[in-house]
Amino acid sequence: MRKLLYVFIVVLIFTNCKQEEATVPTGLVTEKAMVVSAREEASKIGTEIIKKGGNAFDAMVATELSLAVAYPFAGNLGGGGFMVYRKNNGEVGALDYREKAPLAAHKDMYLDSLGNVIPKMSTSGGTASGVPGTVAGVMAVHEKFGKLPLNDIMEPIIALAKKGVVVTKKQAKRLKGTRNRFIEVNGESTKFGQLFKEGDTIKYPELAKTLEIIMTEGKDGFYKGEVAQKLATYIQEHGGLITEEDMAKYEAKWRDPIVFDYKELKIISMSPPSSGGVTMNQIFKMMEPYDVAKFGHNSAQTVHLFTEASRRAYADRNYYLGDPDFVDIPYDMLLNDKYLKDRMSNFSFDKATLSSEVSHGDVQIYESMETTHYSIVDNEGNAVSATTTLNGGYGSKLYIEELGFFMNNEMDDFSSKPGVSNMFGLIGAEANSIAPEKRMLSSMSPTIVEKDDKLYMVVGTPGGSTIITAVAQTILDVYEFNLSMQDAVNAPRFHHQWLPDQIIFEPDGFSSDLIEGLKSKGYIINEKRTPIIGKVDAIRVLSNGHLEGGADKRGDDSAFGF
Ligand code: GLY
Fold first, then answer.
1. In the chain, N or C terminus with fewer CB closer than 10 Å?
2. Which residues line ligand 1 (CB under 6 A)?
3. 3 state SS for 297-308
């Protein structure tokens, strides 16, 4: 009898706890520290900073600023982002260095006299830029947590800007594809009006000079004096609103991250003005009652359940979320267990729910796909997850020649006219309307996961509105389906965001049987649009404490460590 009880208890434990590491790691494995980012140069410099005695926060400053040099497509001084951290003592926190609307911005600023949205005004050139937050962000991180002097962190980056960065094949293609837009916005003589080929080296002496000023003067070197004056003048010459006063007033903000449990995991992600944490919390909680591991990786049941949870979560996201300094967000309702259970009460594995049957049906989003994420774990066990962006690839395409960087087109992440689609087919809600000094809603979801109170994963991705689903699927792929970190990053992904009421699948990753099966349940599949979904850079802590990197093969992404 006692033996039987023992067997019962063992079976119970094994059925309720997921087994650790059924799979061998397939990504880079290191013993102590790792940086995974969109470019080898940035991952290397971040790792070197840790080797020199810096911590994950010093490496964050280094990686973020290196990406501004090595990956101007999304890395930036002229944009903004979010960072979530977990210190080795378990303390967690988050930093919001999202761009803000200029003081002169107003709700109708992108509308003509008839109230119609003016094409390109929120996406291209000086009118599209919000007040940049990146430099304030890295300086706030350095001031609060940094160990190394700023000079030690920034000198290698300034050296890289002077020496130059070699153009990759993917970068050459992007530069060529955007060249006409660079010329249209900045004129014929703009630096990126040249045709760069794979293997060319691009040097950034002007950017090196801007970085030198920041290294010497800190945050004020960017937000006051010569740099702020040149930035404001260039923006205004191109029709934009940013003034020196806007620059001087910008502050990054420490915020409480969104923290929730999913089965044995504790998930820590970004709070508003990013929608990432809230939306992911809703998706995971709606899925939690199901034995997802049994359904199988990317099986019809998994796609069906994930899609229905996403549909409901995105409907709330688009309606309720905005800058918490301006909008009251009903967290108590949105994250309440009973509310989320009720949201799934009409879910059935037999058929698709129609988005028109899920409330707040007038609102949809379609954000730009171009952003970048990096993940860091240091040799003391501190972890940093950060996502940074210019919004579109090369942002507004406005390149401030004298300062050596692109400006963001983040104003397009506001809803220019609540309830009406803009040029991307993007429709937003009142909670995300434009106001002076307000931060625009984001999907960026830098995330850290704990298991058994220990660091388990650091994860994030670019991908606009698909960020949230890509991060959630990567966590599920490792935890529920025992994929290695690298395999989870490589795994094909799918996406549904309530409206438009359709699923998109990455190319070649899903069988026609699965797709036909979903169609027979009433799902609309967008077979014309099969973009890549996310470019995830992640780190998993293995049971022996070593680290496995997942650097997305969809880009030039690279893991480095020791
Ligand atoms: N600009 C993309 C995002 O913030 O989600």
1. N
2. 367-368, 371, 389, 391, 413, 442-444, 464
3. CCCHHHHHHHHH
What ligand 1 atom has the least distance to the C-alpha of 410? 1
Report if residue 264 sits inside a domain.
yes
In contact, 87 and 60? CB cutoff 8 Å: no
Q: Which domain holds residue 452?
A: 25-41+79-127+256-561
pLDDT of residue 117: 87
Q: Examine residue 67 and state whether it is found in any structural domain, yes or no.
A: no
Nearest protein CA to atom 4 of ligand 1, as residue: 442
Q: Do 57 and 138 touch, CB atoms closer than 8 A?
A: no
Which bin fits 239, alpha (ψ -120 to 50), beta or left (φ > 0)?
left
Q: Is residue 529 situated within a structural domain?
A: yes
All residue ranges of the chain with pLDDT < 70 are: 1-22, 359-369, 419-428
Query: Distance between CA atoms of 429 and 115, rounded to whole angstroms?
Result: 16
Q: How far apart are CA 227 and CA 230, in angstroms?
A: 5
Helices (H) and strands (E) in the chain, counts: 18, 20
Whole-angstrom Cα distance, residue 40 to residue 165?
A: 11
Q: What is the pLDDT of residue 23?
A: 78
193-227: burial string, b at 16+ Cβ within 10 Å, e else: eeebeeeeebebebbbbbbbbbbeeebbbbbeeeb
Residue 424 lies in a domain: yes
Sheet holding 372-377, edge to edge: 253-255, 92-97, 80-86, 383-389, 372-377, 34-37, 558-561
How confident is the model at residue 319, as a pLDDT? 85
User: How confident is the model at residue 159, as a pLDDT?
Assistant: 98
- What is the C-alpha separation between 192 and 14, in angstroms, rounded? 58
Q: Which residues are catalytic?
A: 371
What are 537's strand-pairing partners?
551
* DSSP secondary structure, 393-449, as one string: TTTTS-EETTTTEEBP-GGGGSBSSTTS--TTS----GGGB--TTPBPPB----EEE
391 belongs to an annotated ligand binding site: yes
Going by the DSSP 8-state scheme, the letter that residue 287 receives in this structure is H
Q: Strand, coil or helix: what is 497?
A: coil
What is the model's pTM?
0.94
Tens of pLDDT, residues 409-466: 999 999 887 765 543 334 557 889 999 999 999 999 999 999 999 999 999 999 988 9
What's the CATH number where 385 sits? 3.60.20.40
Q: Does 464 show up as a binding residue in the annotation?
A: yes
Does 443 belong to an annotated binding site? yes
Is 371:467 a contact under the CB 8 Å cutoff? yes
Residue 419: the pLDDT is 63
- Probe ligand 1: pick from 321, 389, 535, max atoms within 8 Å of CB? 389
CA distance 29 to 31: 7
Mutate to test the pocket of ligand 1, among 413, 445, 465, 471 (most ligand atoms within 8 A of CB): 413
| Smallest CA separation from ligand 1 atom 3, residue | 442
- 373 neighbors 43 (Cβ within 8 angstroms): no
List, in order, residues 6 or more apart from 197 with CB less than 8 Å away. 167, 172
Domains of the chain: total:
1
> Which atom number of ligand 1 is nearest to the Cα of residue 440?
4
Q: What is the pLDDT of residues 97-147, one digit of tens each?
A: 999 999 999 999 999 999 988 989 999 999 999 999 999 999 999 999 999
